[in-house]
Amino acid sequence: MTSFKALRVHQTPKGPTACVESVRLEDLTPGEVLVRVAYSGLNYKDALAVTGRGAILRAYPRVAGIDLSGVVEHSSDVTFKPGDRVLATGAGLGEWLDGGFAEYARVPAEALVPLPPGLSLLEAMALGTAGFTAALALRRMLENHQHPGQGAIAVTGATGGVGGIALALLKRAGFTAAAITGKPQAAAFLRALGADEVIERARLDLGRKPLETAVWGGALDNLGGEVLSYLTRTVKPWGNIACIGLAHSPALSGTVMPLILRGVSLLGIHSVQVPRAWRLAVWGQLAGPWRPAAIEQRIVRAVIGLESVPDAAQTLIAGQATGRFVVRLRGAEC
Ligand SMILES: NC(=O)c1ccc[n+]([C@@H]2O[C@H](COP(=O)([O-])OP(=O)(O)OC[C@H]3O[C@@H](n4cnc5c(N)ncnc54)[C@H](OP(=O)(O)O)[C@@H]3O)[C@@H](O)[C@H]2O)c1
């Protein structure tokens, strides 16, 4: 192939601007494995990069897209051979490396995971970084002794990619889950994913005391700010709060009281630079015991082309999406 389609973000006098254009392999950042991309997924971070609302890309021009699935065309690393089905999430793609919003990607072998049996290339990207992050959070909570008997897990930003998949995984792992959402009209969607209870965020009594009545067994938080602060005050003794996102605010405020008087743990979740053994184990869980039911029907909001990515990114930034946008590339025809 001489050239192929990619969505690249350029730095312009008006700020970062995304456009679909023709690029050549030599234009891409290096990587041992050439992947014909089948699907990518649109994450909040991609939306920030594509709209220029966040400083995600470390250099310009850069192909955006932190996730991809596809088929190996060529590899100079013996771990992979032509025809292998693979996926990658994070690992610098769509940040300091050219990413998945392109028909071809050059990917460091270290970043690639063989597509686990039980997942299609589309399903892998319906989960993508969102699913991987939710599963990593659940794994860390379990490692820190979270168990269903402690009570329901509160999930914030529940209609988002991470939140929605977290509801599904919690169900599969035997927990009850409460979806805290800004979209009460999405209650049926949230219940179908796995929520046992749906709570409108605006109706939550956030309280102010360092310790409020403890009601949650634990929490997965995608919002930060005042909601995260509320969770620290209301999680029961020895519960865990997986701190994932900042869709509302990057602020973290509160006191040490929940930590020292209830043994509550705040677990940092970081999905980009993850030890390879953890990556493989988490994807094994996602494709196996924690595999959400009906991934395509329940998690995918729409399968879109590269040209639709900027509009979809605006929807995500406005907090209006329910479910995941999956981006279809030419490799999907393989
Ligand atoms: N730590 C990591 O490695 C990692 C990995 C992936 C994602 N993240 C972060 O986790 C968060 C969620 O990611 P995502 O991909 O699930 O995003 P998403 O699909 O855009 O979902 C975010 C959800 O948060 C809520 N929300 C959005 N804007 C809000 C606002 N201004 N105030 C309050 N609530 C708002 C909405 O849910 P409701 O309407 O249901 O409340 C929205 O659906 C983001 O901050 C993202 O950057 C972190």
Spell out which ligands are present.
NADP nicotinamide-adenine-dinucleotide phosphate
Largest sheet: 7 strands, mixed
Structural class: alpha/beta
What's the total helix number? 9
Q: How much strand content do the residues show?
A: 25-35%
In CATH, the architecture of the largest domain is: Alpha-Beta Complex
Form type: globular
What would your notes on this structure say?
- The chain has 334 residues and is α/β, with parallel strands linked by helices.
- It has two domains: 4-118 and 291-333, Alpha-Beta Complex (Quinone Oxidoreductase, Chain A, domain 1); 132-268, Rossmann fold (3-Layer(aba) Sandwich), CATH 3.40.50.
- Helices cover 27% and strands 25% of the residues.
- It has nine helices and 16 strands.
- Strands 3, 5, 6, 7, 8, 15 and 16 form a seven-stranded mixed sheet that branches. The chain has a six-stranded parallel sheet with strand order 11-10-9-12-13-14, sandwiched between helices. Strands 2-1-4 form a three-stranded antiparallel sheet.
- Helix 1 (44-51) crosses helix 9 and helix 2 (121-143) crosses helix 7 (276-287).
- The longest helix has 23 residues, at 121-143.
- NADP nicotinamide-adenine-dinucleotide phosphate binds at residues 43-45, 129-130, 133, 157-163, 181-183, 201, 222-223, 244-248, 269-271, 316, 319, 321.
